[in-house]
Amino acid sequence: MKAALLTRPGFIEIKYTHDPVIGPEDLLIKIKRVCICGSDNHIYNEGIIAKSDVVLPFILGHECSGEVIEIGKNVTGFKKGDRVTVEPSSFCGKCEFCRSGRYNMCDSYRFLAAPPDNQGAFCEMISHDYHNCFLLPDNMTYEEGAIVEPLAIIVQAFEISNFKVNDDVLIHGAGPIGLLALMLLRAMGAGKCIITDLNDYKLNIAKRLGADFTINVLKNNVVSIIDSLTNSSGIPVIFDTVGMSKTLSDSISTSGKNATIVVIGISDDKASFDIVDLICKMLVLKGTTDFVNCFPKAIRLIENKKVEVMSVISHYYDFNDLNIAFKNMNTNPQTIKTMIRFD
Ligand SMILES: [Zn+2]
Ligand SMILES: [Zn+2]
């Protein structure tokens, strides 16, 4: 099959490699659409992610959908021709974490296109455990199917956020994850939705998607604006999709009493924030990674048009033009999310 091999940082070569081997519990999936994730871009540029070195050549891509073209002998509930989206995780199912429903903490946890594995979805076919594949409802396209994964990230963040109806929310970052968070929080009955970024183009999109207030952090003081927007009572629920020291300290400073701050974005920053605020406001600070049992919920949110996921797609490229797609993502400030087509 043809695969997009990252052979050195910043350079992908489309080459022929061996077809994937299909195990008894696997589906062989012909890839139709893949979205580029921020983590793909990080690996593309740096050849390293979350402190793990990447073994080259590396096949990027984990936000994908496709058509089932072959099924393993123990598979039930799927047939050839089914349209599916792929939860990129795999796990042992037996350890303490798996058995208590926290499989994203499994000691043997693996993820498509994440080290130590070097196999992702930017290729013609993948083989994947059928337990982690989900049928697309008839009214969902392959394109929507490829955005289930980032929405699932937000579903999990939402579920641990202690959000209550009418809570005001602050979202750091108007990239795809921040915009998906905004749309989900609106759908769930959020009060005032405030979103920060340093890019006015993205903030304008946030406004169109329902943000009540947008703050450009390069031009404004987030803490004083939120102080006046909330009459000094602070924000009860904060989603940090950036994950830098500045956004974390702004979150701590702008949070209300007993607020929950969920950190979704990741950077190499070492954080610095006001410990007095953390203690005296009895804040809840949570990190979240990937998802547990969130795919079915994310699919239903899209199926029922609760979250218009296609509004985060800004660019489309063909599989053969992956280098151009990454180049655009790295140089064009109007890139939100990029979708790669395979036919
Ligand atoms: Zn992703
Ligand atoms: Zn496990």
Would you write up a description of this structure?
The protein has helices spanning 38-46, 96-99, 142-145, 148-159, 176-187, 200-208, 222-229, 245-254, 275-280, 295-303, 322-331, and strands at 2-8, 11-16, 26-35, 48-49, 52-53, 63-71, 83-86, 89-90, 110-111, 125-129, 133-135, 169-172, 193-197, 213-216, 235-240, 255-263, 284-287, 313-318, 337-341. The protein is α/β, with parallel strands linked by helices. It folds into two domains: 2-149 and 291-341, Alpha-Beta Complex (Quinone Oxidoreductase, Chain A, domain 1); 161-287, NAD(P)-binding Rossmann-like Domain (Rossmann fold, 3-Layer(aba) Sandwich). Strands 3, 6, 7, 10, 11, 18 and 19 form a seven-stranded mixed β-sheet that branches. It has a six-stranded parallel β-sheet with strand order 14-13-12-15-16-17, with helices on both faces. A two-stranded antiparallel sheet has the order 1-2. Helix 4 (148-159) crosses helix 5 (176-187) and helix 4 (148-159) packs across helix 10. The mean pLDDT is 96. The structure holds zinc ion (2 copies).
